[in-house]
Amino acid sequence: MLADTDSRWKWGMLTARQLVPADGVDPYLLERPEPPSARQLAEAGVAPDALVTVRMTGLAGVLARRRPDVLVLALPGGGTVSAVHALAAGWPAAVRRPLLVTGYVGVVYEKVVEGLLARSGTDIVLANCTDDAERFRAVYAGLGLDPDVVVETSLPFLREAAPRERSGPFTVTFAGQPSVPASHADRSYLVRRLVQHARLHPGRVVNLKLRSVPGERVTHAEPHPYHALLRRAPGELPANLRITVGDMGEALAATDLLVTVSSTAALEAMSLGVPTVLLTDFGVRESLGNAYFSGSGCLASFDEVDAGATPAVDPAWARRHGVGGPGPGNLVDRVTALLETEPAPLRPYYTAERSPAYLPGLLASYGLGPDGRAARLGPSGDGQAARMVRKAIRSTARSFYRSGTHVVAPALRKLGSL
To answer: Does residue 315 sit in the same domain as residue 336?
Structure first.
């Protein structure tokens, strides 16, 4: 299993473990400027000492020595394209290549065609529900690609509903997202509404569920962290308003109402039978992701939450969108069948002939040349190297900025108040 950031680690490991026991999965970290923390790896079920860090330029050589049967690619689209090209260029002809399995970490609400073309050339593209499977196959068929690579499965972290024996105060959990909504004003608005809800309902517990702790790298950058906005909220914070971090499944076990803008946590809550609200306060828009939940019966405003709304998901919508889906059976069956045949040559959609203005830059961001091998520096390569250095510097600068605003600045403010 090859992954880069936090949510992809969780999805990738759970997907791989649907095929083999935990001790049969070799976890590979794609080298990046900011690796996941020990806490993030532990949450995904990865022991730090089992981790092997690889570069895209050395991926084929490292894997050829281990000869895996299956490689789960838990990467963004550009990383998947680059991995397919790297393996196509560097895999030894005398060694059977691994089956390549990829998919989506959560709800697919935008860039559908772009994401699917980035994942073409792999052996299996996982769709998390019936609705996605139908959309994906239609896209591939319309572009002359094999629609049968799409395999319908379920998000591996969805749990089946069980009888709930809740005790204690009514608990509202807000599932925060790093980049939805993105603006300071919108995120400050959500903090104000959470504080207001806690004050309106002093008998409730209101949890602000964060994806990460300060300083950790996440899949999507978080320019305005909720915990920092909450610290600057005017007045004394209600005692029943809390911040939590950790596994979403554990948080939902103690939740009576899940509120979010569009997080995949909504599907987790629905699968557990937890009432769920997708907020309409910022509109219902594809760019927010809440448009995906149209027809679910769970779209509502914060005013309605304040008034006591606890909507239940429409059963027909839930079935088409992955709640109570087929589980891992289709994936296991397809992998078993493909392992009994000789794998076909890797043929990504994006090639130097088909996309000469797009592919080289995409591969260069992972250190690869247009042929899928390690980029060679020369008169033209020097400019490419400079671009890669600038990108690394920007990433490191962002890391320092996050550390300064999330860790150092609060500590200095605390010292100043002594």
So the answer is: no
Residues 80-104 have pLDDT tens digits of: 999 999 999 999 999 999 999 999 9
Domain count, the chain: 2
Q: What is the CATH number of the domain that holds 232?
A: 3.40.50.2000
Confidence at residue 219, expressed as pLDDT on a 0 to 100 scale: 52
Residue 271's domain comprises 171-320
Dump pLDDT digits (tens) for 205-218: 999 999 765 555 55
The tokens for 277 are 């609200």
- How high does pLDDT run on average in the chain? 88
Same domain? 291 vs 331 = no
For the stretch 8-53, pLDDT in tens is 999 999 999 999 988 899 999 999 877 788 888 888 888 888 899 9
Model confidence over 261-275: pLDDT tens digits?
Answer: 999 999 999 999 999
Whether residue 405 lies inside any domain: the answer is no
pLDDT in tens, 347-389: 999 999 999 999 999 999 999 999 999 998 654 444 554 455 4
Query: Domain holding 103: CATH number?
Result: 3.40.50
Q: Specify which residues 299 forms β-bridges with.
A: 278
Nearest residue to 132 (alpha-carbon basis) of 151, 119, 118, 157: 151
For 1-33, b/e burial (b = at least 16 CB within 10 A) is: bbbbbbbbbbbbbbbbbbbeeeeebbbbbbeee
Q: What is the 3-state secondary structure (H, E, C) of 231-265?
A: HCCCCCCCCCEEEEECCHHHHHHCCCEEEECCCCH
What pTM does this model have?
0.86
Number of neighbouring beta carbons within 10 Å of residue 392:
12
Give yes or no: residues 193 and 314 share one domain: yes
Q: What is the DSSP string of 147-200?
A: GGGEEE---TT----------SS-EEEEE--SSSS-SHHHHHHHHHHHHHHHHH
Q: Cα torsion for 96, 99, 100, 104, to the nearest 10°?
A: -170
